[in-house]
Specification:
mainly alpha, 2 helices, 91% helix
């Protein structure tokens, strides 16, 4: 009976360790995905400003509009 409990405890510890590794891997993937999305948003905003580059006031309005639209998509 004691051996069974010891083996069960060891198996539980292994499961917890494996789950922790999986969680960390998934967290890293999520962070990478968010970083990629941020980069894409920044590129899209810059592209919009470049395409409609008229003056500073227009650029600020374009950027504000873009950020408002991007925020609405969340």
């Amino acid at each position: 009976m004691r051996r069974f409990l010891r083996d069960a405890g060891a198996e539980a510890s292994k499961i917890i360790a494996d789950a922790s590794k999986t969680i960390e891997t998934e967290r890293e993937k999520a962070v990478q995905g968010i970083q990629n999305e941020i980069a894409q948003v920044a590129i899209a905003a810059a592209s919009k400003v470049i395409q409609e580059n008229v003056d500073q006031a227009s650029n600020e309005k374009i950027l504000d509009d873009f950020l408002r639209e991007a925020g609405a998509g969340q």
